[in-house]
Write a structure and sequence with these properties.
Length: about 425
């Protein structure tokens, strides 16, 4: 049917309003609602549960089938066959790179891993026990001070260099957070290493000893980066898009995305989930936590469970669960009981009417914490790891938006406040007790 439309009849009185329907490549149709302005009505959708905020070609999620595609490629295939830099190229440019393109891209990332020497001063302003995400928000935003004036976001080459700088510098800035917290000297990037190997070297290496990157840990962490790289218009990506729609520079936009990711309902769930599993401890204590999670009067939620879009198993959680046991056996067998508790928690929850009826499954954060912990990543750095990976997703969406027709993001509201009224002088105000 050409130009399908939907007809809105306003309480049966006036002429129905016909609104165009636009069909995607895959997924739900969308109703274009611009003409609603004529009728002086807004669509009301708190949390944007049913609202498409933009058109995008980067990532697609089918929540019912538990499917995730980066530029059309299933996450399972990328996690198994690709690496994080190749996946980053794919997200940014839309196609997998050939050998030449891959070499050029990796080289461009490598030469931008170092940060301006003066950036080291920023860390001294933080307490040693500052949460690393608070430092990431500050230091990544401060990159604007070093590059903002050399940046014309309407120039595609400037956009590309900004994207490469951010992808390259996130691991360096993140590792510096950790070194600052433990009082060890910052490590300079070692560009002969892979992207992920370099990060591990900056995190765990010291100037006084040679650090050998463990290839199994490198591969496991690189896969975790792939799994976290992008995820449609999630809260932090939407934050980056809104910030970018004002014309703010990409460094400030990514800093805004880091701030949004920090929340426990979003990227902060991996840290919260490991803490919850530790608090549960042994399987016999699971029923108590399940009861709390189901209690409407208790704000406790099962961390790492549930998702706005996945009403099936999060495919990333599946991949994480499959590799978790191997990694524990290699690096941290003492946490295998914790993994057993997580498996038992998942089993009990998935047999419980409440979780079945609400379609609550483990999400990407449920098994990632145990895996990261086994790799020796400190708990407070879990969401920082998520931010390193998600930077390529954020900057790909920013680039996609800025390359197109940018519309300032400015939602309307349902106003239920006071009607217009006149000012009352203080001696005439009777304060209601
Ligand atoms: C990420 O958007 C993305 O794509 C995010 C992400 C990405 O890659 O960017 O996938 C990464 O953020 C994953 C989610 C990490 N967060 C958590 O694990 C925190 C625990 N999960 C919940 O807070 C919750 O599931 C959300 C926030 C993730 C999703 O919440 P929604 O979609 O807003 O759903 P909801 O809160 O309206 O929940 C629907 C119902 C509610 O019950 P009712 O009010 O309808 O009776 O399910 C309940 C909720 O109370 N519910 C849970 C629950 N999650 C939802 N109850 C107990 N435990 C949970 N974990």
């Amino acid at each position: 049917m050409n130009n399908p439309k939907v007809k809105l009849i306003f309480n049966g009185k006036e002429e129905p309003l016909e609104l165009p329907i636009i069909s995607p490549t895959i997924g739900n149709d969308v109703i274009q609602i611009e003409q609603l302005q004529e009728k002086k009505v807004y669509m009301y959708d708190p949390g944007f549960v049913n609202t498409a905020s933009c058109e995008s070609q980067i990532t697609y999620i089918n929540g019912k089938q538990g499917k995730l595609l980066y530029r059309g490629y299933p996450i399972e295939q990328l996690a198994e066959k690709s690496d994080f830099l190749e996946t980053s190229y794919l997200l940014l440019n839309g196609e997998l790179p050939d050998q030449d393109q891959y070499e050029q891209f990796s080289r461009s990332i490598r030469i931008h891993t170092i940060v301006h020497e003066q950036m080291r001063q920023f860390y001294n302003g933080f307490r040693r026990d500052a949460h690393p995400m608070s430092i990431m928000v500050g230091v990544v935003g401060a990159l604007s001070a070093f590059y903002h004036d050399s940046l014309d976001i309407n120039d595609p080459t400037h956009r590309k260099i900004a994207a490469h700088r951010l992808i390259a510098k996130m691991p360096t800035i993140a590792a510096m957070c950790y070194k600052y917290a433990i009082g060890q000297p910052f490590m300079y990037p070692e560009n002969s290493l892979s992207y992920t190997g370099n990060f591990l070297h900056m995190l765990f290496g010291t100037p006084s000893e040679d650090y050998q990157v463990n290839p199994i840990a490198e591969k496991a962490l690189d896969r975790i980066f792939i799994l976290h790289a992008d995820h449609e218009q999630n809260a932090s990506t939407s934050t980056v898009r809104i910030a970018g729609s004002t014309g703010a520079n990409p460094f400030a936009c990514i800093s805004a995305g880091i701030a949004a990711l920090w929340g426990p309902a979003h990227g902060g769930a991996n840290e919260a989930c490991l803490k919850m599993l530790r608090e549960i401890g042994t399987p016999d204590r699971i029923p108590k936590f399940i009861k709390r999670a189901k209690d409407k009067n208790d704000s406790f939620r099962l961390m790492g469970f549930g998702h706005r879009i996945y009403k099936e198993y999060d495919p990333r959680a599946k991949i994480m669960k499959e590799s978790c046991h191997d990694i524990l056996e290699q690096f941290n067998a003492s946490d295998i009981p914790l993994f057993q508790t997580a498996l038992e928690l998942e089993k009990i929850a998935r047999e419980d009417e409440y979780f079945i009826e609400k379609n609550l499954y483990p999400n990407v954060d449920f098994y990632s914490g145990i895996t990261l912990n086994a790799l020796g990543i400190p708990t407070q750095l879990f969401t920082v790891i998520f931010a390193i990976a998600r930077t390529v997703g954020w900057i790909s969406h920013w680039h996609e938006m800025i390359s197109g027709k940018v519309k300032l993001g400015r939602p309307r509201q349902l106003y239920t406040g006071k009607k217009e009224r006149d000012y009352v002088s203080s001696n005439n105000r009777s304060i209601k007790k």
